[in-house]
Amino acid sequence: MWRVARKLGDHYSILTQREALTGGHEGERVDCPDRYFTRHLLRWLADDLALSTYRRIVGEQTGVRLRDCGNNEVIEHLADLLVGRRLVLQRRSPPRPHLSPVLPEAAPQRPPARAAKRPDSWIELRIVDDESGDPFAGVELKVTASDGSISRASSDRDGGAWMDHIVGGACSASSPRKKGEGTALDTAAFLGIGEAPTGKKEASDEVQTAGKEVAGAEAGGGEPSSGQTGRAPVVRRARHIARITEHKVKSGDTLEQLAESVNLTAEELARFNWGAAEPEEIEGCLGAFVGCTRRDEKGRYLLDDSDNPGIVYLPEPWEQGGLATEQKHTIRVKLVRTWVRMLYQLDVDEPAAKDDTIIIRTDDGSWTYEIPVSSLSEVEPDWVELVFPRPPPGRRYSMIQDLGKDGDPIVIVDGHDESVFWASDPDEVELWKPGEEEQGGEDSDEEPEPDPDEEWDDEPEEGAS
Fold it and tell me: pLDDT tens-digit profile of 113-135?
């Protein structure tokens, strides 16, 4: 028998079926009819000691390695054991102490202040991609209850964030973000709330009109989710949620004016859009990502109607009110800019490689992104994962490993167009090993190069003339 927790004066324990059948344990059995009820009951009972006991029970009963499991996964395993009747949850109410009556001759005493009842309501938020239904992990969330109390949590690998011991009633949810914090690569755009996709258009379909928001479309329509298509969900990652407006620049706009419209500085807006902070970097990004071509008398780029694609993302804080407690709310979001991921063969433990740098750049020098080898770690034996923003379109690219003073750079990709970095679905993560596209397939007409070490049989076949 494992003692789990004490709630509202009752003691809760978990027994094996054998212990429950043999008897000798005081208390009544708590019915666990389904996983949903059992999961929420276990979360209500959970404190630090109970969570430690949960882990010990699951480890002993299933043999599952729990080192990398979060608390939610442990609770899921334990709920399965209780619903499957392998374990039994028992509640025991201790006898109440007898209180002596106040003697008549005693002086009247002021009754003690009644202890405030601990709030016992809960709310669950789940963050998913609007089109695919894929979960978003790592999103920081804040819930403000009806009495003004605040609870915080981050979404797990299922996209869920659970907050309990809050006052019942309507709550509001937000994603805390300091002024100027975050970029378009780690901030998801809020689209709506509900189980069905909102049916919003792709960003590329919305650039004809200035000031279109990547949020707030009418519900309905949309692409089938990962569950509907049968593919395994891909865990996406973001840190914040914001209301993001996709602004098509026009003649007369300035970066300073656009930034002021969302209470940011020009540098903060540039950092959000392109991760750039220095004036030279910002100028390069205006040319590479916004497509600016006109310049002023000092040689600085000017925003213009003709800029292609001419898009600047304007972020504002997100907050959603009117969320009822004791319910799960699905928050639908979308990334406005995406990462590219590639596998590259590299021994990161080689001392000579520690000071190397992986450089991705346009052949015209308008855009560059650098990844220090010292920041990389193996994801497979002798393979590392390179992660970088998707480069601007319409140019040719090269990727090199700069050896510094140790020798000439190693060319990884040389003079490719942007298609080498693009996945078929702009929101899907691309995992690519350099050289794969150069290998001849079944339909390839290329002759394989002869192996100089291969032995050739120059003897004529039997019966050949």
Answer: 665 556 789 999 999 999 889 99
Strand partners, 401: 358, 410
> What is the average pLDDT score of the chain?
77
Question: What is the residue range of 262's domain?
Answer: 121-221+234-334
The two three-digit tokens of residue 212, written as one number: 């279109």
Looking at 250-289, list the stretches that DSSP marks H as alpha helix, in order from N- to C-terminal side: 255-261, 266-274, 279-285
- 292-296: list long-range contacts, CB under 8 Å, 24+ apart: none
Same domain, 355 and 391: yes
Query: How many domains does the chain contain in total?
Result: 3
What strands, in cross-sheet order, belong to the sheet with 396-402?
368-372, 357-362, 396-402, 410-417
User: Looking at the domain assignment, is residue 14 inside a domain?
Assistant: yes
Q: Does one domain contain both 49 and 66?
A: yes
> Rounded to an integer, what distance in angstroms lies between the CA atom of residue 276 and that of residue 95?
67
Lookup: tokens for 99: 């209180």
What secondary structure letter does DSSP report for 286? I
Please spell the DSSP secondary structure of 50-109, one letter per residue: HHHHHHHHHHHHH----TT--HHHHHHHHHHHHHTTSEEEEEE-PPPPPPPPPPTTSPP-
pTM of the model: 0.53
Rounded CA-CA distance 160/80 in Å is 19
Q: Per the domain annotation, does 110 fall within a domain?
A: no
pLDDT-based confidence at residue 344 (cuts at 50, 70, 90): confident
Contacts of 240 (CB under 8 A, 6+ apart): 139, 140, 175, 176, 177, 181, 182, 186, 187, 188
Q: Which residue has the tokens 């990398």?
A: 68
Whole-number Å distance between alpha carbons of 406 and 397: 24
Q: Are 184 and 289 in contact (CB under 8 A)?
A: no
